[in-house]
Structure formats: structure tokens, C-alpha cells
Amino acid sequence: MKHPLMLATLIAIATTSLPATAQFAKPEDAIKYRQSAMFLMMQNFGRVAGMAQGKMPFDAKLAADSAANAEFLARLPWGAYVEGTDKGGNTKVKADIWKDKAKFMDYADKLQLEMGKLSAAAKTGNVDAIKPAVGAVGSVCKSCHDAFRE
Amino acid sequence: MKHPLMLATLIAIATTSLPATAQFAKPEDAIKYRQSAMFLMMQNFGRVAGMAQGKMPFDAKLAADSAANAEFLARLPWGAYVEGTDKGGNTKVKADIWKDKAKFMDYADKLQLEMGKLSAAAKTGNVDAIKPAVGAVGSVCKSCHDAFRE
User: How far apart are CA B150 and CA B147, in angstroms?
Assistant: First the structure.
């Protein structure tokens, strides 16, 4: 952690990604909140990934808008992983998440960093700049799902 | 429309709230997208409204963060009201929405303007500034739901 800007970024993420707990009227709301945020994030990220992979025609404005949405949405799910919400709804979260919350939050922070890089790359309008950033995001998704999702 | 800044705001909203259509792999995705965005928006707006109404203790940072989230989320649902998605999932949208899309989009624009004012009010940290802005948002929600939701 040598770079003061990176430290500032991490502090900003830590303070925005961990809102006060007990924000949810009932456990089902917390589950629905994080699932809704993940769905919206994946829809937006999926568009950018589809373009990067040549599965959709590249549209620079749509890629930049979608990546910006995904960057914002990547801040939302984490405060909704309230302890005890591993039952209810159709959640696939493993109870392990609360035994190793630090590891989970490391993934959450990493995702936000990589999504920020993807959004910056998408703003350039250069699809070749987007490709590695898509890969980095996908890698964090997979690592976290492998560890914490049934 | 006398104020150039207001015009700039409206142009910015128009260009961000109407992404290219055909962004969704299937109709159910469009329905889930707008419902997810509405749910997240209402969870965030609901916190601010609860504080403004004295139902929750006032927490200035939480109010500002939640209002900023709601402001961002208020941009997302509209592109997902793709024609023909009045059936499927558990959507309550009336088919009238596509007969009077201009009126619907007026509400969408109005909501984004009022949510922006709420977010600005919440940044002041003064709950008395938040109260009228909450009322204005709630009024747009109700008008649009009365017109276009079963």
C-alpha cells in the first residue's frame, strides 16, 4: 500500500460498502436486496463482457454506460449479507460466509476495484482495453462464488 | 425551461435513462431488471422516508448514502419497460404504458429530478430539508403507480 490514492480509494470503498447493519425490516428483504443488486450488476456486466467476447456488437456508449452502472451496483450487495440470512428466500449463500467475513469482504473490495478499472477502461471506447478488465472481474466473481456460494 | 442548468440536467437524464433497447436476452429478464431496480430504489428511499417521518432515528450519513443510492437507481428501470413485457413473471404493469409512453416517461423524468433534489437535501444533513423532498418523490411514485400499475 504505497500509493496514497490507492489508500484513499480503499478507505472510500470501506466506508461506502459497509453501511450500518439492521437496515432491513426482515431477513427476506436483505436476501432480496443482495440478489437484486447482483442481478442488475450481472446484467450490466454481462453486456460489457458480451461485447468484449465478440458475442454482441460493440457499442462504445452502451459499454461505458453499462460498466458505470455495474461499478455503482458493485457497492450495494455487501451490507445485505446480514448474519443469519443463510436461510430463507432462495439464497445460495454458505453459512461459512460469517465464519470468514474478512475473506468475503476482501473479495467484495477486490470486485469493486476491478469493476472500477473496467468502468475506466470502457470510458476509453476501446474494446481492447475492456477485454482484460472483463477477465479480472470475472475471476473475482468466480473465486468468491466458489468459496461462498452453494 | 428558462434555466440552462435545468436544461442540461434534463438532457443528461434523457440520455442516461433511455439506453438502447433489446438489451435483454428474454422478456423475463427485462421484468426482473425493472423490478430489481424498483426494489433497491424503494429500500433506499424507504430508509430516508422513514427517518423523515420519525419512524427511524435520523442518521445523517445513512440518509445521504441511501438517497444517493436511490438517485442512481432511479435511472435504471425505464429502459426495461420493453414493449410486450406486460405478461410474464409477476409484473403488474398495465399494457397502457406503451399506448402512452410519453406520459410514462414524463413520470420517469420527474422521478429522477425529484430524487436528485432529495439526494441534494440529504447531503445537507438537515432532516427538515429532507421532509418536503421525500413528499415530492412519494407523490410521483403514487401518480405513476395509479396510472400504470395494476
Answer: 9
